[in-house]
C-alpha cells in the first residue's frame, strides 16, 4: 500500500510539474505527455481525464503505457 501511495504521489507530481511555467529560453508547449510505467497507467489516465474536465480550453493530456524502459528511453 505504501508503494502505491508513493507511485501515486510521483504521478501527480509529474503531471503538476509538467503544467508549470517554462524555464527561461525553453520552448512553449501546448500539451502534456506522460509515457512510461504500466503500473501507474490507470491512475495517470484518471488524473489526465480529471485535468481535462477541469480545464475545458486545454488539450487532453496524452498518457501512454510503454513500460518503464520505454519511458526512460524517451526521458534520457
List keywords for this structure.
2 strands, 76 residues, 51% helix, mainly alpha, globular
Question: What is the gyration radius calculated from CA atoms?
Answer: 13 Å
In terms of quaternary structure, the protein is single chain
The secondary-structure element order is HEHEH
Domains counted in the coordinates: how many? 1
Secondary structure: number of strands: 2
Task: Note the total helix count.
Answer: 3
pLDDT averaged residue by residue: 76
- Sheet with the most strands: spatial strand order: 1-2
Tell me, what's the shape?
globular
Secondary structure: helix percent: 40-55%
Overview of the structural elements:
The protein is mainly alpha-helical. It has one domain. Helix content is 51%, strand content 11%. α1 crosses α2. The longest helix has 17 residues. The termini are far apart.
In short:
The protein has helices at residues 2-18, 41-54, 68-75, and strands at 33-36, 62-65. By secondary structure, it is mostly helical.
